[in-house]
Amino acid sequence: MDTLVEDTRLPSDIDARPLVQAAAAMRPVLRQYQEEIEREQRIPRALFEQLLAAGFYRMVIPRSLGGLQVDPLTYTRVVELLAEGVGSIGWNIANNSIGQLVTLGLSDAGVQEVHGQGSPSVIAGTAVQGGGQAIPVEGGYRVNGHWTFGSGCQESSWMLGSFQILDEAGQPRRRPDGGSMYWRGVFRREEATVIPGSWDVAGLRGTGSFDWTVKDVFLPEYRTCPHVGVPLDNQWARWPGITYALPSQCWVGPHHSSVITGIARAGVDALIALAVEKSPRGRSGMLCEFPQVQDAVGRADAVLNAGRCYRSATIAEIWNTIAGGGQTTLEQRARCRLASTNAADCARQAMDLVYRWGGSTSFKRGSRLAECWRDLHVVGQTVTVGPEWYPIGGRALLGMDPGPRLR
Length: 407
Prior knowledge:
Layout: H1 18-40, H2 45-54, H3 72-85, H4 87-103, H5 108-115, E1 123-125, E2 131-137, E3 140-150, E4 158-165, E5 182-188, E6 193-194, E7 210-220, E8 224-226, H6 242-245, H7 254-275, H8 291-323, H9 330-357, H10 368-379, H11 389-397
Parallel strand pairs: 1-4, 2-4
Antiparallel strand pairs: 2-3, 3-7, 4-5, 5-8, 6-7
Helix pairs in contact: 1-3, 3-4, 3-7, 4-7, 7-8, 7-9, 7-10, 8-9, 9-10, 9-11
């Protein structure tokens, strides 16, 4: 188990943390399974057991429930290193943790059922609103729904989905402001049906992010909670510790941003490895001897690390604000989301630089550069690091209403 940090202090050396070192050591193991992960679109059972044993599926669970209760810098670094090994593994671990945070907002009975049974609470699904409809019944709801992006559904024990509650006339209930009312629910994995073939994509195939459905499933009320925020606000602050007092911006955004920077690091390293063994066709000398390649590697490393450092700095600033007894500002939360999106864009720039100089190797399907290119650009399309965060953050910094996605 990872050595615990003081509740009010971030680790002085993230890479020295035992959990981070375990993630770094896992990278060559992940490479051994990469082809099977891509082909089968799931995590092989033997590898899944290793990830469980290492504690990667318990990072954000409170210590009182047998979790590690890590800080967000440790979490993002672990995700980044796992994504460096195989992008799909980093993605699924990242998403699982966000799902676990959401479930910590359930009632005590719900939390105990999901997390207090002595077995890993591996969670797949989505926190985004929509997908299902529910009819109130005694003790809970009858739910039907169809959701997309069930990342990790092949390994999960629980599925997270959002739904509308219907009234007696079969119409969606409305909030006082007239908007649609959504709730989140946690379903047992065996209650969900995964739709084969629904995850036909260019990259991150191994995430197994298939569509999934439930049909006329009884969902007890204690495994539901209001859908607060677009997409997500902190509903887990009742748990002790700064980890759970942090605003959602320290988790949502940084989680996918860390996946893409991990993949970009693997891409840079792939070109470095190629450059010392490849002599470009029709030219003399090794690829590493070309000034343009030297320039590309230097720029890629600088750009990528600049984005990573800004992301970490904004998270650390928010942590220290709360640790000091203060309240975060809208500007701080905006910069945290801006830093996550910027880090993702830095990863894109770094990948573009190294992919170009890989020559024909870059587009060969089996090459590491091609794998990183495919996976990175799938991560880059997710809304959590999308370009719309720049104007949202800009409005906050200008003293304007940033809209419902940033509060």
